[in-house]
Amino acid sequence: MMPTTERIQLIRDYSTLCDHGTRARYVSGCKCLMCKAAASRYAVQRKLARSKGDTRELVDTGQLRDHLNRLHQGGMSHRAIAAAAGVSLPIVSGIRSGAKLRVRRHIAKKIQLVAL
Ligand SMILES: [Zn+2]
Questions:
Q1: 40, 46, 73, 76 — which has fewest CB within 10 A?
Q2: What spacing in Å lies between the alpha carbon of 34 and ligand 1's midpoint?
Q3: How many domains does the chain have?
């Protein structure tokens, strides 16, 4: 795996290729009005999302997988679970198959609220 400093530099180099008016360009160092506005929009959206419980914190999916197994054994399909939780089908399938080992906490909460 590439060292962290090289990865960060690679991301910065790529970000300078992004259009002005994007947060990526702002993060790469551009402080023009359009990029500042994009960064501000992002900050406002994140604040709103945080107030709704989206902390971007990752949680392990072990217990969630057990919960999904119980729902599945009770007759719910992955599609039905995803619809009931309001999450995408690949998230449910990924957790159940073991491919997805961590998810955002707000996603985990949505799935935990699904009952038979
Ligand atoms: Zn800019």
A1: 73
A2: 6
A3: 2
Report yes or no: 86 and 41 within 8 Å, Cβ to Cβ. no
Q: Of the candidates 51, 71, 88, which is a domain's last residue?
A: 51
Radius of gyration over every alpha carbon of the chain, rounded to an integer in angstroms: 19
**90 CA distance to ligand 1 middle (Å):** 35
62 and 92 co-located in one domain: yes
Tell me if residue 115 falls in helix, strand or coil: coil
Cα separation, 14 vs 101, whole angstroms: 28
Question: Domain range for residue 76?
Answer: 58-112
Per-position pLDDT tens, the chain of length 116 = 678 888 888 887 888 888 999 998 998 889 999 999 999 999 999 999 889 878 889 999 999 999 999 999 999 999 999 999 999 999 999 999 999 999 998 899 999 999 98
